[in-house]
Amino acid sequence: MNTSAMLKSFCDAVEQRNGKAFAELFTEDGVYHDVFYGAFKGRAKIAEMIDDWFYRTATDFRWDMHAPVSDGRALYARYTFSYRSTLPEANGARVMFEGVAIMTLRDGKIAEYHEVANTAPAFVDLNFAPERIARIFARQGAALKARPEMARHLG
Questions:
Q1: Is the pTM of this model over 0.70?
Q2: Which domain of life is it from (predicted)?
């Protein structure tokens, strides 16, 4: 598996609104955990996430992966990501953030995608009200606490 080619296909598919091509990078039972929208399981749902969810309130996506590292079972890459928001309160702003993509691989495909993202600049760009940001962060916190690897941190 050529990780650079996989990551280029990953980014290109998002930028081209090609959910089918994006979903083909995943295993049949693959899961994409999106920092904003939650988990999408299976190729049909992952394709829907790109074609419908991502483009519902945004356009002109740009996604770049930097400095990927992989052992064949896991793939990590720092990324920069932006889009033009179509939400009324954003006034057409280009929304930007950076993060780290964390992928579990199986048979040359992505079995699971997680990300750790600095979303704060995006919320400022989107002109979200503080109460809305607090609700989003509360959902992200609940999802973090529900993960098995956090169990010992909760006691």
A1: yes
A2: Bacteria
